[in-house]
Amino acid sequence: MPQPKKHRSSKAKAEANRAKALKSYHKHRDDMNERRRALYKEQHPQSRSPPPPAVEFEAPFDGLQYCIERMNKIPARLRQITGKCPKRFVGQIYVTWVSDYTNPAGSLRRVEEHLATVSDIHASASKWHNMIYSAFGVGPQLQNASKILNDVVQVMRWIEEIWMEIVQSPTELIAKHRGGKLLFQTS
């Protein structure tokens, strides 16, 4: 009488082969990986040094004073973009958008450029604010930094509101502006 078949279907046979291959791999994987590493090193002879370790922020000279000085330069950067009156600047963004209303992509891009510029200043102000908070905790230095940061955030919110209204409903933006209901008009 012949020996009974081990695997009655092709699926069972494939599963048995997979299990056998996996068992063989686990038994010989160290040798296989060693051979692969040696082959890779032969094919890629240049040395691969690990990346340099991440360097923590090191401010020149007095680090704490440096953070305060950098934070105190933020209002000048903001004034350089907005001029003396941030409301007038945001109003000009709106007027420019309305004058180019027939070219939605171009006018939206111009608003986005202003938003990106103010957003860069905001990122810088946030960074210095957080460093001052970490160094001094709550105190007069942080209050001054918070005031500067809030001024930047306010301008950014005004531009963001215009941008969001342009994306959602340009006609509603025009209606809000005529009604004096935009953030830069009410504050």
Report on this structure.
- With 187 residues, this protein is mainly α.
- It has 8 helices and no strands.
- The longest helix is centred in the N-terminal third of the chain and has 34 residues, at 10-43.
- The mean pLDDT is 82.
List keywords for this structure.
mainly alpha
Based on helices, strands and strand pairing, what is the structural class? mainly alpha
Spell out the helices and strands N to C: HHHHHHHH
β-strand number: 0
Q: Classify the beta-strand content into a percent band.
A: under 5%
Summarize model confidence as the mean pLDDT.
82
Shape: elongated
The share of residues in helices is: over 70%
Fold topology:
Layout: H1 10-43, H2 63-72, H3 74-82, H4 86-99, H5 104-136, H6 140-168, H7 170-178, H8 183-186
Helix pairs in contact: 2-5, 3-5, 4-5, 4-6, 5-6, 6-7
